Amino acid sequence: MPTAKLILDDTTVELPVIVGTEGERAIDIRKLRAQTGYITYDPGLANTGSCQSSITFIDGEAGVLRYRGYAIEDLVEHSSFVEVCYLLIYGELPTRAQLEQFQDRLTHHSLLHEDMKKFFEGYPPSAHPMSVLSAMVASLSTYYPDSTDPEITELNMIRLLAKLKTIAAFSYKKSIGQPYIYPRNDLSYTADFLHMMFAVPSEPYEVPPLFEKVLDVLLILHADHEQNCSTSTVRMVGSSGADLFASISAGISALSGPLHGGANQAVIQMLEAIREDGGNYQKYLEKAKDPNDPFRLMGFGHRVYKNFDPRARLIKKLVDQVFNEMGINDPLLEIAQKLEEAALKDEYFIERKLYPNIDFYSGILYRAMGIPTNMYTVLFAMGRLPGWIAQWKEMREDPHTRIYRPRQIYQGSTHRPYVPIDQRG
Ligand code: SDX
């Protein structure tokens, strides 16, 4: 078994090394503080493994992404979002019978409790749907409490997968003053969501097959991404024993930030700002490079991918296919393409290995499908839900799981006596 030697002051400690199935190596520091009194320091945890997991593998240098060993490219070509949900949560591709039963369970749990519709009445039309989504998911705990019975826990996973799209669509309908459209059991998961989003009671609505396929692929591409910010949040909250809905609600909140899942909305807002500024994308490239300017090129850069995000490549191919098939041209797409081309040739981005990430082009596709901008991150959450559930389940079932409780290095005042108020300056 490989080990690592650490020389501290006049002692040398030998630490075990953990090797993963893909050859990744970690120094096991679980006994470091007990043996040396030292802790490690790694803000943002960029160099720290929080767990061992069998769900998703990423090779950031090579631009590789696999769910349970299956390459994202194969899953996009051959699988479906519902099948990928099953794969992530249960670890294996389902048999036909298993898939049909899983799909049937999702279909028959997609209704919300009628009383939950009242919750939407309290939100202003301007409410961001991510805030509504996080609150509604947390509220599911009040209808479906946690249980030590594994069958109830699994049923709650099914309920959450089935109801999240209904909550998302209802929050959109409420925000535009249209009546809720109920789930339909004769539609696929993805078609049902689009139908709930865009149908109205006064006339039939046929979900465009192209949009059903495109959204299904987008949901697959978003389904999991190992220990990103929101998934780590789900694991951290769940590590205290908090129930599934509370843990996922926290993950939704973490995802809403513009540096994370909120980036897909921020990219479109950035492209619109450039368009309003006469299409002057070079100006924004310079702003992104200026250390004194907080502006960042949204949809660019990644903590793990120091090469192209494989998901961005696949989304870009989808953009070309959809725009050709629909015969549309979107000025924002042209700006995005020019921005990408200029950035990829610019020393600042090359030196820092900044490439387009999943969020750079996804908004362009959502826009082509008529999805409103403030719903983009909700669709990211819908895609990421099976990954969050799978990671929460793995954390719960892992005997090595401990409550997350990091340490710190204290830099505040050392001990000082209390000063009575009439003696203060
Ligand atoms: C997602 O982790 C995941 O897996 C996330 C995700 C998932 O599927 O869950 O992939 C989804 O969140 C994708 C990322 C979406 N966010 C954005 O597109 C926002 C813009 N990108 C950045 O804010 C940034 O690239 C991050 C947040 C994505 C990564 O930040 P890091 O790893 O902390 O990198 P950093 O801030 O340390 O940057 C390193 C350098 C810095 O320059 P210097 O201080 O060395 O001079 O690169 C610069 C940064 O200023 N930089 C950028 C930049 N991203 C990094 N400069 C301009 N524009 C950018 N977008």
Automatic annotation (TrEMBL):
Q: Could you tell me the Gene Ontology terms of the biological process aspect for this record?
A: tricarboxylic acid cycle
Gene Ontology molecular function, alphabetical = citrate synthase activity
Positions annotated as active site in the UniProt record: H302, D359
Transmembrane stretches, start-end = none
Q: Does the keyword DNA-binding apply?
A: no
**Phylogenetic classification of the source organism:** Bacteria, Pseudomonadati, Rhodothermota, Rhodothermia, Rhodothermales
Pfam families per the record?
Citrate_synt (PF00285)
In its UniProt entry, what is this protein called? Citrate synthase
Q: Which UniProt keywords apply?
A: Acyltransferase, Transferase, Tricarboxylic acid cycle
- Write down the InterPro entries for this protein, in alphabetical order: Citrate_synth-like_lrg_a-sub, Citrate_synth-like_sm_a-sub, Citrate_synthase, Citrate_synthase_AS, Citrate_synthase_bac-typ, Citrate_synthase_sf, Citrate_synthase_typ-I
Q: Which family does it belong to?
A: Belongs to the citrate synthase family.
A Gene Ontology cellular component where this protein is annotated is: cytoplasm
